Amino acid sequence: MLEARLEQADLIKKVVDSIKDLVQDCNFDCNDSGIALQAMDNSHVALVSMMLKAEAFSPYRCDRNIALGVNLTSLTKVLRAAQSDDILTLKAEDTPDVVNLQFETSTNDRISEYDLKLMDIDQEHLGIPETEYAAAITMSSTEFRRICTDLAAMSESVSIDASKDGIKFSANGDIGSGSVTLRNNTTLDDKSKKDNVEINLSEPVSLTFSLKYLVNFCKATSVSSTVTISLSNEVPLLVSYDLGSGSYLRFYLAPKIGDEE
Amino acid sequence: MPRTRTAKAAAPSSPTAETPKASSSKYTLEATTTASPKLFVLPKAASKEAKIVTLPNPRTAKPSRYLVCPQTGFYEFTKIAAPKSVPRSWLIETTSDSQRSGQTISNAEFFIASPLDPVFLLLPSLADSSIAKGSDDKKKLFLSGDDYFDQLPTEYSHLEEILQWTESKTVLEKRMAAICDTVDAGDETMFRINREKLVSLCLSKARTLSGSLPISVEKQFVAKALQAPVVNQRRAPVQKSASTLSEAPDSGTSTPLTETLESQSSAATIETAATSVDQDTVEVEEAIKPTEDVVELQRLRVALDFICDRYISPAVTQWVKEGLASSNVQFSALDEYLAKVAELRAEALAARSLGDYSRKHMRDEDDDDAREQKKRKMEEEKRRKQNQSRGVRDLKKVNTTGMMKLSSFFQKK
């Protein structure tokens, strides 16, 4: 039996919104530590991994491991019925056919309830090791989105070069080429803190990625004001959004190798 | 007798079927005979003493009617009848001037008596023990003619009476000698069947027959069997193999025991077959043509098959065919040719089934199934697509060359 109450329906609305454009159907694996999700896109080159820790909910109760297989488009439709500041409660039986979603207005004068049919989804789970990345850039999520969308206008792929000089996003396409370079910029000034760029570099990295996928990841911009991009040579790129209290939304993308278009 | 319709209907001696209706007429009718009369064409050679007797059929061992004449031997009956679809009757007039009388017979059939070699009648008992013993027929004992006669089925058989005529016994034993080794034991002759003699007898009969095969048989079983599929024409005529011979003439020329035995005349059956053959045998280019020797062998085989199917029981036929292998007539050339024809036909059939539109109907059901499945699949796909976000759809178009699958970076759990 699962029962998870979330003070702000907003969080799950945004998370589901950002995932639904990458995967179609996926399992929400619920256990006593929280609700986790791992899914790959159709081409299996990108992976999304979500963790909503039990602490994010109040209260959270899950006696057994329950897999809630949902179609994310359908879930989006249901979640659209919730206001951002509604209180959301997820409920499911131990072997559920449906997941129950209840939206309460913060003033407690309107309660709406939806049952979403579940489906059986066969999904392979990948074990993702904790990796020490050669370069990790933490920056404003909107800035990252801007870089990606701007460069996507130039080319299909972007090469990310991390060196001691900074981090350079460059795209080379049919109409020309463009690049954005970011330098380490850390201020403690609260006003400009959101523009901070923090680069942790242990060795230079240069990799190429599909911009379409990166733009797709940027749909998660609204879930967090900052994003961390982690790179190492010849491993997938990690784009991580922190959801607070140990919860996260992470995207992995395989680099383009041996193909400098 | 006036040959008008009305007069015929009111004919005083109209038999069986018309009796109840005619009772209201002003003519008084004679009592109907129990069985309707039958017409026979009898051989001139048969003497006055000739009798219609019942003897076991040499092939089936079922009692059948034969005409036996003490002097000239045995005759079998062949029923000639019009096809059932063409109702006919006999109208018979006597020719004597003193009193003109006529009669109708509702069944337009008649029986022709034709000479039969009595050796076939005796073959079951002669060959019986040799076949049972198989190959070591040498050990078979010589037996007297009477012993063989005794071995024939006696039920419904008039053989015993026939044998009381001295002439007929001589005739039978003379014919027996034609296929047997004989030994004189005192005043009696003892017989033992000899397969070589039997085979050569059959072959000589077949050879005579093959020289005068009816045109319909020639077309159906000789020309058609040897015909290779045409190369220039797409629609090769459907071929019948020679083995079907056993059915067609058998039904046509049976010696009937009772009148309920219904069969069409052999002439009628084969006539219809012949017309259908005509349509197919257009002048077309054939892949291979049989040589004259091959045609001759096929004729001989057809004739032999006919004789065997008609007069020799299946078991004995088998035995005779085995003996045929060691005879001086070799069918290997024919067999080779037929194998080649069969091969060509298989090829033609395979080619035809590809391009034959008339077979389309047969596949329709399968097509329906496939179409339905396709439709279902498409609907499912459509539903899936409806539940697919635009982002997912867009990502499908992304060029992912050079990108390895994530499962190559991360281990599966």
Describe this structure in words.
The complex is a heterodimer of chains A (about 260) and B (about 425). Chain A has about 260 residues and is mainly beta. Chain A contains 4 helices and 19 strands. In chain A, strands 6-2-3-4-19-18-17-11-15 form a 9-stranded antiparallel beta sheet. Chain A has a 5-stranded antiparallel beta sheet with strand order 5-1-7-8-9, covered by helices on one side. In chain A, strand 17 and strand 18 form a beta hairpin. In chain A, helix 1 packs antiparallel against helix 2 and helix 3 runs antiparallel to helix 4. Chain A is globular, with a radius of gyration of 20 Å. Chain A starts with a strand and ends in an 8-residue tail after the last strand. The model of chain A has no long low-confidence stretch (mean pLDDT about 90). Chain B has about 425 residues and is α+β, with helices and mostly antiparallel strands. In chain B, helix 8 crosses helix 10. In chain B, strand 5 and strand 6 form a beta hairpin. Chain B is built from 15 helices and 11 strands. Chains A and B meet through helix 2, strand 10 and helix 4 of A and helix 15 and strand 11 of B. Chain A: Pfam families: PCNA_C, PCNA_N.
